[in-house]
Amino acid sequence: MAKDKWGKRMSKIVFLNSPQNLSELYNELGDAGSELPPLGLAILAAVTREKGYDTKIIDALALKITIEKTINAIIAEKPDYLGITSTTMSIYTAAEVAEGVHKANPKIRIILGGPHITAVPEETMNIFPIFEIGVIGEAEDTIIELLNALDEGKSINKIHGLIIREKEKIMLTDKRKPIMDLDRMPFPAWDMLPNLVKYYQPAADTMHRYPATLLITSRGCTGQCIFCDRSVFGNLCRCYSADYVIRMIKKLQQDYGIKELFIEDDNFLLFKKRLKEICERIISEKIDITWSCLGRVDTIDEELLKLMNKAGCWQINFGCESGSQKILDILNKGVKKEQIEEAIKMARKAGMDVKGLFMLGNFGETKETIEETLKFIRKIPLTDFHITCFTPLPGAAAYNLAEKYGTFDKDWKKTNMFNADNFVPHGLTKEELEKYYKKAWMAFYIRPRIIVNYIGKLRHPQIRKKVLKGGMGFVKFILK
Ligand code: B12
Questions:
Q1: Of 40, 37, 45, 41, nearest to 12 (Cα)?
Q2: Distance between alpha carbon 393 and the CA centroid of its chain, in Å?
Q3: How is residue 160 annotated by DSSP?
């Protein structure tokens, strides 16, 4: 039991990532999917631990345990507080666990946080009466103010960034300002997660070397794309300093032997000066790391790409979305089709692999725009590819526009982005969309160049295992 400096028992918080199975998240492609550490929870746990709270993380998703086992594991910890993270996909399981915990021990105060409650706070509180307190947005400061107030039995109404149920009423407190100085925060508490190497792996096609892990080094995105939920970090872009990032990399290497990173920032390439510094330090300090990242096609230049490649970056994942300019404009992507093509060529020339991320069944989509996309996919020199079904996510502008553009089933359980159950644009049927979805995967993958590239990735036994399992899932999906 943790105690403060006067020997008083500090209260205990358990942070939870709700249970879910990979096929719920990715359908047949589950075995190829990412299993990545919940960095939001790991940072919050580091913060509460630093402030003296007895802290524990239960990542039921990584541990692959059932709802019942999750509830038992929480109860066994005898916490004062349970902090649950939520995406739209996980909110129903989060509520189920919360109900089970409340039934077993009503004294445990349940706090909900994460992208889903941030995106649609009132709607969520109305649907799930089990939740009493929700934290909106970034929570590193909010959680401490909240726990301190609850511990002391004080009112929480003046704490910024909350949604609170009080008797029959739901009230939002003032908005919390984004954290500007990210460096003041501790590293994620990787040590409190289940073993980082054993339980977490990026998707088969994102792993170049093993062991690999996820890293987030900035917050916010200037983009205005209507399909993206930017509720937590918003448009204000902030980043950890280059020095902080280098120290995180070194810690991951020393403590977990990490050799490969997947940097999944919303807009990693935006911070050019910092990026240059990170690359230069990796090179000059001979840090043995390879990495890939996400990027917007309008944030790159040739010189930087070459430097990134020299510093171990072997792949960029560009959000291409569609091969139709009409669709790109509807999505408010803010880029031209030619820019996408140009950026891919530039990255390839700099020695990098390029994975194109696409969506199908977008607002305004027709058979013609889909055919245009399929043609584009085969024409541009991508080395890898990913496509999801367009899904109007709570928190994204598309959520409130969807009914104008098609048939929208708002059911939050259907937002895994791998089926056409959620949104079908006017003029197309669900069956047609599913047919095209399969066709798109095949259009890209069933080509000798791509298959050879995949075989080339089978260096480490763990990567081989993941790619082969993913390949079998792919065959199942095609034959379905
Ligand atoms: C890495 C990532 C993943 C990884 C790992 C997710 C994980 N375990 O955390 C993988 C690939 C597995 C994944 C899967 C999915 N993802 Co994802 N993912 C991300 C990404 C790029 C980064 C997440 C991250 O680490 N952020 C950094 C941390 C610090 O931020 P954070 O997690 O939001 O946490 C902060 C706050 O939210 C809050 N908070 C979070 N939890 C809690 C809990 C408590 C108690 C409190 C008080 C506060 C709190 O405090 C934290 C610190 O400030 C985000 C985009 C983004 N910019 O965040 C999308 C994002 C979270 N994913 C999204 C989606 C849609 C999905 C999928 C459905 C897609 C799919 N099928 O592949 C699945 C669903 C997974 C699930 N179980 O629900 C959406 C969620 C939108 C929504 N409305 O729910 C996002 C926001 C992308 C987007 N812009 O649209 N994802």
A1: 45
A2: 13
A3: S
CB-CB contact of 430 with 421 (8 Å): yes
Q: What sections of 170-238 are H helices per DSSP?
A: 196-199
- Cβ of 116 below 6 Å from ligand 1: yes
Q: What would the pLDDT profile of 348-391 be if each residue is shown by its tens digit?
A: 999 999 999 999 999 999 999 999 999 999 999 999 999 999 99
Cβ-in-10-Å burial (0-12, 13-18, 19+) of 62 comes to: buried
CA 79 to CA 12: how far, in whole Å? 5
pLDDT bin (cut points 50, 70, 90) of residue 73 is: very high
Q: Which residue has a Cα nearest atom 67 of ligand 1?
A: 416
Angle between helices 91-104 and 67-77 (to 10 degrees): 50
β-bridge partners, 219:
238
State mean pLDDT over 212-219. Answer: 97
Best residue among 85, 415, 419, 422 to mutate for probing ligand 1's pocket (most ligand atoms within 8 Å of CB) is 85
Give the number of the atom of ligand 1 that is nearest the alpha carbon of residue 266. 57
334-340 long-range Cβ contacts below 8 angstroms, 24+ apart: 334/223, 334/224, 334/225, 334/298, 335/296, 335/297, 335/298, 337/376, 339/297, 339/298, 340/297, 340/380
CA torsion through residues 412, 418, 419, 420, sign: positive
Domains of the chain: 12-172 (3.40.50.280), 201-479 (3.20.20.70)
Which residue, among 341, 433, 356, 442, has the nearest Cα to 391 in the 3D structure? Answer: 433
Joined together, the tokens standing for residue 66 give 């059932």
Residue with CA at minimum distance from ligand 1 atom 68: 416
**Count of positions (residues) in the chain:** 480
Q: Provide φ and ψ at 281, rounded to 5°.
A: -70, -35
Calculate the CA 7 to chain-centre distance.
Answer: 39
